[in-house]
Design brief:
alpha+beta; phage-related protein like fold; Elongation Factor Tu (Ef-tu), domain 3; six-stranded antiparallel sheet; six-stranded mixed sheet; elongated
Length: about 375
């Protein structure tokens, strides 16, 4: 009869539920960007390895003027007149003047100046005209407000895995000093899985490649989607990082109708950002960050100088010369339905012990894809920072 201490002990310790619970603990304590994003529900792939979603884009609520407008003028030329319609009240970035839009012809707004008791002033070319509110008469008809045709976006599932192996003697010797070898091996492998997933989330490239005679698919991460046409990626030309540069990124996101809540940097730029904050605003939050191999803890921020950012994330998977701003609610890790464990959809375990092996080996694996929604409007990247 098999010895119950050494037969199946490792497999029992690595069941799907334990793996998923341990992974949640590890990613919360040892990762940067991965900690801030969502784990979505399991999704069935098509063509065996693909998933897709629809990006909906809502237009920004402002546009720049394209010419100077004198105090008495009632025609305001803007870069994009499709944002405006009659009944809107709009304000000018360079003054306190409020105007009401009477009609729109192409990119020309016919307005009433000095609305609501404000004073008309000269408007310069490049001033921003922002929509403040929309007045509608009773029993009015519906009107579109800049909702764009959804765009189909695609990513691939990627298999991520690790293995835990223990000899028969190691399994029989459960205690070594004050360390449980089995518990240590499990926690270490789960930690490596969180690092692997975080790297895929940051650096992953959507692609397929043939290894031997079999095709392997790879999931695309944040950097991949921010490299695509239409995304906002800025080459900083080796200039130093400034709060103005971060504000400019955030302002562009807002101008595209997006929003963001997190700024992510590597260790080098975390120190730079710490210095910038210390010079401009009293903050002690950044002094408490802790480094770890492959990952760094998330840091809450109290930075009014970088727009509506609420969290600063330090992640060693980001390069020393880059900074990423994103909406954490738009990024999710999606497990493959049916291919992973049925309990939570995240990970599964397989007995990988070979015939005659004097010990046990268990493989932990799962298929995951990164869902990076609204990458052209809700996130931006600054790279080549000096």
């Amino acid at each position: 009869m098999a010895d119950p201490i050494t037969s199946g002990l490792l497999a029992a310790a690595l069941d799907d539920k334990i793996i998923n619970e341990a992974f949640e603990i590890a990613r919360s304590n040892r990762t940067g960007i991965l900690q801030t994003v969502n784990f979505g529900g399991a999704r069935t792939p098509y063509e065996g390895y693909k998933m897709s979603w629809l990006d909906m884009r809502v237009d920004a609520t402002n546009s720049a003027t394209t010419a100077q407008v004198l105090v008495a003028a009632t025609t305001v030329p803007v870069a994009d007149g499709t944002k405006f319609r009659a009944g809107m009240t709009v304000s000018v970035s360079s003054s306190d003047e409020v105007m009401i839009v009477e009609s729109v012809s192409a990119n020309n707004l016919t307005v009433s100046r000095g609305f609501g008791g404000t004073t008309a002033v000269q408007i310069e070319s490049g001033d921003i005209i922002t929509i403040d509110s929309v007045g509608r008469e009773e029993n009015s008809l519906a009107a579109n407000d800049g909702i764009f045709q959804p765009e189909t976006v695609e990513n691939f599932f990627q298999t991520m895995d690790t293995a835990v192996e223990m000899s028969r003697r190691a399994l029989a010797t459960l205690q070594h000093g004050n360390t449980n070898d089995l518990a240590f091996q499990i926690s270490e492998r789960i930690r490596q899985l969180t690092i692997q997933m975080d790297r895929a989330l940051v650096r992953g490239r959507k692609a397929t490649h043939t290894i031997g005679s079999k095709d392997v698919s790879y999931t695309g991460g944040l950097r991949y989607f921010l490299d695509q046409v239409g995304a906002h990626a800025v080459d900083h030309s080796a200039a130093a990082l400034t709060l103005d540069a971060i504000n400019d990124l955030n302002a562009e996101i807002v101008s595209r109708g997006g929003m963001s809540d997190t700024v992510a940097v590597g260790i080098a730029k975390a120190r730079t950002l710490n210095s910038l904050v210390a010079a401009n605003y009293s903050s002690e939050r950044l002094t408490d960050w802790q480094a770890d191999e492959g990952s760094v803890l998330r840091l809450p921020s109290d930075l009014p100088l970088v727009g509506n950012i609420t969290n600063i994330v330090v992640d060693t998977n980001l390069a020393d010369d880059e900074l990423v701003i994103y909406d954490s609610g738009s990024v999710s890790v999606i497990p493959m339905a049916a291919g992973n464990s049925s309990d939570s959809g995240n990970w599964q375990t397989k007995d990988a012990t070979q015939n005659g092996q004097d010990g046990e080996r268990v493989r932990v694996l799962g298929d995951f894809a990164m869902e990076v929604r609204q990458s052209k409007t809700h996130m931006a990247r600054l790279h080549n920072i000096g």
